[in-house]
Amino acid sequence: MNFQFDIASSAKPAPTAVPFPVGDNVLDVLKQILDVQREQLQQILDVQREHLHHARMSSQENLARWRNLLARWHEQQPEFADQCKSAYPVLEKAYVQMLSRMTQELAEQDDDTLDNEFALQEFIDRFGMKVGQMSHLLSVVGPLSEAAHQLDEIRKHEAEQKQAKG
C-alpha cells in the first residue's frame, strides 16, 4: 500500500494585513465605541435605580404591615410596641456578644480546626442553632421596633397638627 499526501494544495495563503483606517475614520470608530459604552452604562444605572426603588418600596410595605399590626392590637396590648422598642437593643446586644464569643473562639484555634467532620459538627451544634434562632428573633422584633418608632412619630406629628389647628 502506498499513500501519498499533497500538503501544498491544502495550505491556506497567509492572511494579508488589513490596512487600519487612519485619521477621521479612527476618531469616528472611537466615538461610536464611546457612545455605546455610555449607553450601556446608562442602562446599568437605570436598572440599579429601578432595583433600589423596588427595594425601598418593599421595605416600606413591610414596615407598613408591622405598623398596621401594632395599630390593630394597640387597644388590647398597649404596651407591646414599647416592649418591642426596649427588647430589640437587648436582643441585639446578646446577638453581638454571641457572635463575638464564636469568632474569638475560632480566632484562638488553628486554621485547620474545622477541617474534619467531627469538629465541624461540634461547632455547628454549639453555635449554629443559637445563632440562627437569635437571628430570626432579631428579624421579627427589629421591624416591629422600627414600626413602633415610626408609629410614635406619626402619632406625634398628628398631635402637633391637631394642636396647630385647635
| Shape annotation | flat
Mean pLDDT: 87
- Count up the domains: 1
Uncertain stretches of 5 or more adjacent residues: none
Q: How many H/I helices?
A: 3
Please give the largest β-sheet: none
Decide which structural class fits the backbone: mainly alpha
Order of helices and strands: HHH
Through-space gap between termini: 115 Å
Residues in β-strands, percent:
under 5%
- What proportion of the residues is helical, as a percent range? over 70%
Q: What's the Cα radius of gyration?
A: 33 Å
Number of strands: 0
Brief characterization of the structure:
It contains three helices and no strands. The chain has 166 residues and is mainly alpha-helical.
How would you explain this protein's 3D organization?
The radius of gyration is 33 Å and the shape is flat. With about 170 residues, the protein is mainly alpha-helical. The longest helix is centred in the first third of the chain and has 49 residues, at about 25-70. It is built from three helices and no strands. The chain has helices spanning about 25-70, 80-110, 115-165. It has one domain (about 25-165). The protein starts with about 25 loop residues before the first helix and ends with a helix.
List its salient traits:
single chain; 166 residues; mainly alpha
Please write out the topology.
Elements: H1 24-72, H2 80-108, H3 117-165
Helix pairs in contact: 1-3, 2-3
